[in-house]
Amino acid sequence: MKDFYENREFIRDEYRFAHWDPESGLPAEEVEANVRKFYKENAQMPPVLQRAFAFRYILENARIEVNPHTPFAGKIELGCNYQNQFAGAGYFERLYCERYRDIFSARLPAEWAKRLQATKMGISIPDTDFWHICPDWDRVLGLGIRGLMEEAEACRKDIERRGEADGETEYFFGAVEICYDAVLTLMRRYIAAARAKGCVEYADCMEALTIRPPETLFEAMQLSLFFLEVVEIGRERGRTLGDLDALYLPYYRRDVARGILDEAKTRELFRYYFSKINAGRRYANQPVCIGGERADGTTLVSDLTYLMLETYDELDIYNPKIHVKCDRNTPEKLLRMLAAMIRKGNSSIVLLNDESIMKAYARIGIPPEISYRYLPLGCYEPAIPGYEDARICGGWINLAKGVEFAIHGGYDGMTGELFAFETDREPATFADFLAIVKRHLKSFVDFAMHNILAQETYAYEVNPHPLYSSTLSDCIRNGRDVFRHGMNVRNTSLKVFAVGTAVDSLLAVKKYVYEKRALTLPALSEILKHNWEGHDALRAAILHERAKWGNGIAEADDLACELYGYMASLIIGTPNGYGGVFRMGADSVNFAEVYGKGTGASADGRLNGQPLSKNLRPVNGMERLSVTGLVNSASKLDPSWFADGAPLDILVHPSAVQGEKGLDALVSVIRTYFGNGGVSIQGNVVDAAVLERAAEHPEDYQDLQIRVCGWNEYFVNLSKEVQRDFILRAKENAV
């Protein structure tokens, strides 16, 4: 294997400046045109077969490149733009996004129109969520390509033998066979190109993987990256590469015992592995997982865990991002290593509390002996691979919008439109006002659930995925695509966010309208409609109030618990209409900005269109007691509400975590929060002065990364608005 650091410059931007072999296939524009022509000419073909034939055409005809500077050498041209922070959509993804819009808008015009209105108002954007998938990596690596093909054929024969075959099973298994023939074709194309370039190690590895499961760590890593590549040819994203401790440790141990690998060679493999992922620029970064526990409760953390983390830290990259499953047996050594990485700025890490997540699963009827196998998908959302079709991002619901509607009698503060119903413009008591807020929130939940279920009717027509489905044992045994309800456990998630903005707005209404009687609710409504214009003194007074969410103040914490408890009663366990239930989460990701644009001025002093509070964070500038108050507030929330995750963002000044005592303090925050039932935690250690210099002189801070939502980005690549957001919060947390 060639020295990584001699080759790094040829890997870092290998997708951005790809050298697609013009003799290897057709240009991307021609492939896209032919795929679109195929769909148009075969509109009556069963959707799953449409997908399979188009997939095969792409794998047979798209141009490829074999990069001789990395052992993970192959890649295929899909028409993506790699010039920005994240890779743009490929032509097959663009096609399926258009199908989503065209089919739903044509078949569900009323629901689609309501969805557009809710999007504009910043209420909710319900979705069937084709984006977040998780192949059963145990089966992919355990069976290999041939094994998956053979199992599909055996299940087809078994269904026929039982007399349960029908047209759907015939289409499904036919599509699976077509997909795997295409996968083998692409592998052979890579092999031929690699041999022509003298990339013997890569060619031999891929040759072996065409006939059997992986037997070495290199083969397992190669199959993981290759299968991720082909399973993502479309709208879907493989939102985890699995629990690497559990998946790779047996191969590593065998290779070391046989003398194939030593520590130095293993580190070199992971340098190339992580760098390949980083070069691909997948949207929101590619997740991998470490940690967790076995069925007997012993930790999965091993010497390989530390070796992987040390190698990743050495590279100073933020893609892949690291999901860490934590339990009571998580070694102190691991937590200190992670805390040290976060402290120095390598913060593309989120830690999850197994105990709390298993409590949340128990609430929807999934016991710990199953739920311990969960993996974080996407940013921080738990799902149980191979067991649960979780649809982790069915929609986000904006808590602050419920307060806005209650203030304006049911009307939108910026557009003046009515979304659901009128309500009393001047309720007599704060309790009456809060009841109206809840009525509006219920209307949001009812709308989102109805819209999701209406869309679900057409999910298979819009977006089947036979290759992904073939990795899921339920789908293969049932002879059904995952988007045709092939999984036995089919759950849907709704996320509820902007708790800081909502609680602080409620506190302002309570104090200034109902306690101090400083103004009436209709008067407040007029002030907010005019974006606080002419009322700077009142706005300043409200902004300076002590009682804010995230500071361990009982009045604010009780309101947050009441809001989330109410939403939990509406969402958790509600049947989703196709054999599963709804789950709840509390993350916002970047929708705090997106939904904020449609949310009018709020009673907490926020102006029209400004960002909402993120995840479980306080409103920026309102975190008066730093991490201590935030942990105390968030710990009041019942972890069993959040089967879909509830990330807590912390921001700490470097002076607070200096030296070994500082590292002790950071680890203590994690331990304390998880001990009090916290679900997940992530954050940044930053100095506002450094961020200000980076904003003014970006050329000097090209490698300064920041934890944004469920992913990291380089600070200099953030919008000015988001940069200001982080600078303000960093100043508030200065020690």
Q: What helical percentage do the residues reach?
A: 40-55%
Structural class label: alpha/beta
Q: Give the uncertain stretches in residue-range form.
A: none
How would you state the average pLDDT, rounded?
A: 96
Distance between the termini: 48 Å
Give a verbal description of the structure.
With 735 residues, the chain is an alpha/beta fold. Helix content is 50%, strand content 9%. The strands form seven sheets. It has a five-stranded mixed β-sheet. A hairpin with a 7-residue loop joins strand 1 and strand 2. The protein is globular, with a radius of gyration of 26 Å. The chain starts with a helix and ends with a helix.
Offer a concise description of the structure.
It is built from 29 helices and 18 strands. The strands form 7 sheets. The chain has a 5-stranded mixed sheet. A 3-stranded parallel sheet has the order 11-13-14. The protein is globular and about 80 Å long.
List the helices and strands and how they pair.
Blueprint: H1 4-7, H2 28-41, H3 47-61, E1 64-66, E2 74-76, H4 91-107, H5 109-121, E3 132-133, H6 137-161, H7 167-197, H8 200-209, H9 217-231, E4 237-238, H10 244-257, H11 263-280, E5 287-291, H12 303-315, E6 321-326, H13 332-343, E7 349-353, H14 354-363, H15 368-371, E8 375-377, E9 381-383, E10 388-389, E11 396-398, H16 399-407, H17 430-456, H18 459-462, H19 466-469, H20 473-478, E12 489-490, E13 492-497, H21 499-515, H22 521-529, H23 536-543, H24 554-571, E14 582-585, H25 591-596, H26 626-634, E15 647-652, H27 659-675, E16 680-685, H28 688-696, E17 705-707, E18 712-714, H29 720-732
Parallel strand pairs: 3-4, 5-6, 6-7, 10-12, 11-13, 13-14, 15-16
Antiparallel strand pairs: 1-2, 7-16, 8-9, 17-18
Helix pairs in contact: 2-3, 3-7, 4-5, 6-7, 6-9, 7-8, 8-9, 11-12, 13-27, 16-17, 16-21, 17-24, 21-24, 28-29
